[in-house]
Structures are given as structure tokens and as C-alpha cells.
Amino acid sequence: MTQEIIDRVRAIADSILISEGMDLVEVEFRREAGGWVLRLTLDKSGGVTLDDCTRMSREIGRSLDVEDFIENPYHLEVSSPGLDRSLKNERDFIRFSERRIKVKTMEPIGKQKSFKGKLLKCVEGRIEMETDEGIVEIHLPNIARANLEVEF
């Protein structure tokens, strides 16, 4: 049931966000200590502002109220991915090439599962990154978690 809700929310939000030049990065619908939370993470070129989040929260919230398919009372949260955003798909890795990233793999590569370095490229289902130890190639299905590193 939760996946059905996420899929419907994604379809509604995507139709609104496309016209605003924004991407829907992630949708979560989960029970937390204070009740059910529907969390949307948005992104756009140049970054998402607080005004963007407020405006999209109102617009998406109105559409969800009209559709009225979520039975449980919930709290809607709309936010940006943040400076250390996670990288979830090939499009993210392509977009953030030349940036510093942290990657944890599911299976070790040369006895190592954690990597930090510069993302060089993403092609054919794998990334190449430059680490202190040299160039590392990691296939996307082996990535357990990847995040941008905050650069100052």
C-alpha cells in the first residue's frame, strides 16, 4: 500500500514540478513518532530556495487534497536535498561529475567498501572516481550509498 501511495504522489508531484523546472528527487511515506509523514525532496539547477519549497508544498498539497487517496492523516514536508545530498541514480552521477563524493559499496573492491574522491564520470552503469589511491571503477548496482561531500 505504501508503494502505491508513493507512486501516485510521484505522478502528481512530477506533473507540477516539470512546469517549474524542478525534479522530484525522493518521496518517502512513513510512520514516525509524531504520526505519518509524506516527505518530498526537490531539486533544480541552481538549487531550491525556501520560497520554492513553500510554494511547492502549497501546490502539491492542494492537488493531494483534491485527489484524497491517502487514508491516514499525514504531515507534508517539502525540502531540498541539502549540500551533502545523496546520489541515487545514473542521472545524479552524471549531473554531479567533477564533484567530490563519498561512496559505500555493498561488496568490497580490493578489500575496501568506503571511498572518497572526485567523481570523474558515469557511463554504462558505472562510475569512475579519483581517490588518493588512484582511479576506482564502481558499478552502480554495487553502490549502497553515495553522497556529495561538502566543499568549502
Tell me the CATH topology of the largest domain: GMP Synthetase, Chain A, domain 3
Number of domain units: 2
Main sheet: which strands, in order across?
7-6-5-4-8
Question: What oligomeric arrangement do these chains adopt?
Answer: single chain
What is the CATH class designation of the largest domain? Alpha Beta
The CATH fourth-level homologous superfamily of the largest domain: RimP-like superfamily, N-terminal
Structural classification = alpha+beta
State the end-to-end distance: 42 Å
Largest sheet geometry: 5 strands, antiparallel
Computed over alpha carbons, the radius of gyration is 18 Å
Description:
With 152 residues, the protein is of the alpha+beta class. The protein folds into 2 domains: 2-79, RimP-like superfamily, N-terminal (GMP Synthetase, Chain A, domain 3, 2-Layer Sandwich), CATH 3.30.300; 90-148, Roll (SH3 type barrels). 28% of the residues lie in helices and 43% in strands. The chain contains 3 helices and 8 strands; from the N terminus they run αββαβαβββββ. The chain has helices spanning 2-19, 50-67, 90-95, and strands spanning 23-32, 35-43, 74-79, 100-109, 112-123, 126-131, 134-139, 143-148. The protein has a 5-stranded antiparallel beta sheet with strand order 7-6-5-4-8. Strands 1-2-3 form a 3-stranded mixed beta sheet. Helix 1 (2-19) packs across helix 2. It is elongated and about 55 Å long.
